[in-house]
Write a structure and sequence with these properties.
This protein is an alpha/beta fold and 328 residues long. The chain has two domains: 178 residues, Rossmann fold (3-Layer(aba) Sandwich); 124 residues, Response regulator (Rossmann fold, 3-Layer(aba) Sandwich), CATH 3.40.50. Helix content is 43%, strand content 20%. The chain has a seven-stranded mixed beta sheet, sandwiched between helices. The longest helix is centred in the C-terminal third of the chain and has 18 residues.
């Protein structure tokens, strides 16, 4: 399995080298609003990026930064919106079609919830590229391609790695109930893990509550020796919970942030799995741009993988330089 985890990265190498735009902190925009925040451009093309992101999420700041950097590089206007409610996200997709955009980048944490709007966009002749979540449904719904990480491949790699690192009893922290991608991460990790793994669902909109829930769990079961977070900010919550509970558990995580890199270098986080969100935003827009100007379809009908890649104390210092720019 581990031999597969870097396949598909060659196509996005150029995008990584173009990193240089920092995240700006997004806000969820109501569907009835003015169309969301736009990256300034004099270009004739407009691409909408409609994600399932909650407001203020650092991970999605990097996807937004990647899409806006691509817009700047291709002289195109990027209209970015996000809403975790699939009904409201669907309205944002419908609005983008009504505004006659040249293409839409969509993340599908709840594929069934946005299916009708995505298929309607395709039927209206608007090219759609999916990113981050919804890989399995992307082609079925008519999208040109999917840019992201296979959650099953990444999860299996993490499960194997946790076994190699000596973990035996792990809780897997799901910060958004019903998110199929997060559930797949945990289930795939559990299948490949040599020890015991239990899911725990927390409210990812409230970091204080996440930490409190994890602290209580660790205090109630001293046999837990590992916490697997599914996002960078929740890894930081887990580090705090471990410290406050007096637990000997170690923390590992999916996804990356500057804070996570600091904790890796300090020894508080064993490893992080980077799916390179900047790349997802950048290559999502790139896919639409190449389709617009040259009829290209990236991936040849297959998803383009942006990860996973392991970040440990051995390579964290190098990556920290890019994280400081808001691109890793």
């Amino acid at each position: 399995m581990k031999k597969r985890i870097f396949t598909g990265l060659g196509i996005v190498t150029a995008a990584v080298l173009l990193a240089g735009c920092s995240g700006t902190g997004q806000e969820a925009t109501a569907p009835e609003g003015d169309g969301g925040a736009s990256a300034p451009s004099d270009g004739a093309r407009t691409y909408a990026v409609v994600t399932h992101a909650p407001p203020g999420d650092a991970f999605w700041d990097r996807i937004k930064a990647g899409s806006e950097q691509a817009g700047a590089d291709y002289d195109a206007t990027i209209v970015y919106n996000g809403d975790p409610d699939p009904a409201l996200q669907s309205q944002l997709i419908d609005n983008a079609v009504a505004q006659d955009v040249d293409g839409i980048v969509v993340s599908m944490a709840n594929p069934e919830g946005v299916k009708t709007s995505v298929e309607a966009a395709v039927a209206a002749g608007v090219p759609v590229v999916t990113i981050n979540a919804g890989m399995d449904e992307s082609s079925e719904y008519g999208a040109l391609t999917h840019i992201g990480q296979s959650e099953s491949v990444a999860g299996a790699a993490v499960g194997e790695r946790m076994g190699e690192e000596g973990f035996s009893n792990v809780i897997c922290v799901i910060q958004e109930a019903g998110h199929v991608g997060l559930e797949e991460r945990c289930s795939s990790a559990a299948d490949a893990f040599s020890g015991e793994m239990e899911n725990i669902i927390v409210d990812g909109r409230n970091d204080a509550e996440v930490k409190n829930t994890l602290r209580a769990k660790l205090q109630s079961d001293a046999s837990i020796d590992g916490v697997l977070a599914l996002g960078g900010q929740y890894a930081i919550d887990a580090v705090g919970a471990v410290e406050e509970s007096g637990s000997a558990a170690r923390v590992a995580t999916f996804d990356l942030s500057s804070d996570v890199l600091t904790e890796i270098l300090a020894g508080s986080v064993v490893f992080a799995v980077d799916q390179q969100p900047f790349v997802q935003g950048y290559v999502g827009v790139t896919s639409l741009y190449l389709n617009t100007i040259n009829g290209n379809i990236l991936g040849g009908g297959q998803p383009v993988y942006s990860g996973p890649a392991f970040v440990t104390s051995e390579n964290a210092e190098v990556i920290a330089e890019f994280a400081a720019n808001g691109t890793r």
